[in-house]
Amino acid sequence: MTPLGAGTRSWNSLRTTVVGELLGDVLAGMGTAPVRVVDAGGGTGGFAVPLAAAGHHVTVVDPSPDAMAALRRRAGEQAVSGTVTGVQGDLAGLLEVVDPGTADLLLCHNVLEMVDDPAAALRTVHEALRPGGLVSLLVPSRGGGVLAKTLAGRFAEAAALLDQPVPGGAAGFTPAEVHALVSAAGLTIETTHAVRVFSDLVPGAVLDPDPAGTSALLDLERKVADRPEYFALAGQLHVVARRPDGGS
């Protein structure tokens, strides 16, 4: 089975490489057998197709018919059509298209901020996981959003984001908010990482003349990913949590 992680060419974007590597670490800890993955809101298969190419069985649930069509094309091009299944649906209705208690690993990337009730969505995630199963949760960080708007000179928008009373949506989440939601859903937090701490802030013009600059920036992102002092500055937060073996 092909490993995921550092050096895997499938994760070829600076903004997704660190998440891909973190996901590779999660899978490495799950053993060598194929994993049943559900990718909620997985779109065109940016994560699903590399996971299938690594030998796992992936079900992508997404509301967009266009995304489903693109997923089928991508899976066909990579010769993984037999291990990638696309199902039209959304996170709120996940249990209508995925059997409860069957997912070894559930990806919920850039979805929680789109739902009306993040707490209910995470309870659905809990029910979709098998006991002992893991969720990979990727959400926008409120602090990173405030920083980005401030550096862009959009000070009023930064202030409004800072004072947003309800987590989610355009406001994103603080580390404390996402941790509280995950715990309230009955999931046990295993790791938290900062993602896109610097890459969203460095202009492309800085990197384009120096090919080595992208590699150096990626190394810097890796170094700060597990440092809690950078969580509040990150563009995104990556949380891995487990459904307890007892199913509670």
Short overview:
With 248 residues, the chain is of the alpha/beta class. Helix content is 38%, strand content 20%.
**Tertiary shape:** globular
Q: How many strand units?
A: 7
- What is the class in the CATH system? Alpha Beta
Measured by DSSP, the beta-strand proportion falls in 15-25%
Number of helices: 10
Total individual domains: 1
H/E order of the elements? HEHEHEHEHEHHHEHHE
Q: Main beta sheet, described?
A: 7 strands, mixed
Kindly report the spatial arrangement of strands forming the biggest sheet: 3-2-1-4-5-7-6
Spans where pLDDT lies below 50 across 5 or more residues:
5-12
End-to-end separation in angstroms reads 32 Å
What Rg is obtained from the alpha carbons, in whole angstroms? Answer: 18 Å
| Category by helix and strand content | alpha/beta
Query: Might you state the CATH topology name?
Result: Rossmann fold
Helix content: 25-40%
